[in-house]
Amino acid sequence: MITCYDIIKTLVRTEKGTVLETERKYLFQVTKSSNKIEIKKAIEEIYKVKVQDVNTSIVRGKLKRVRQEQGSTTPWKKAIVTLKEGQKIEVT
Hints:
This protein is an alpha+beta fold. About 25% of the residues lie in helices and about 40% in strands. The strands form two sheets. The chain has a four-stranded antiparallel beta sheet with strand order 1-2-6-3. Strands 4-5 form a two-stranded antiparallel sheet. The model has no long low-confidence stretch (mean pLDDT about 95).
């Protein structure tokens, strides 16, 4: 059985992510097979907050080149989670 810790991989700490925190939005890297309902339940269980909305998108892998070898980074799924008014995730 899949647990909530299997669905949520990590909290994405980027410049864009920290700007969105003022609007009660947080970026998470999630498994590709998870849907919005599973993501919402996992966030509520892990962080003990109320989720208002979940938006997801799949980030394509970028083409990279190391000398003569060409490859790409792995694609991943991003979830932007909006919390209800007055809710906050404590980031350390």
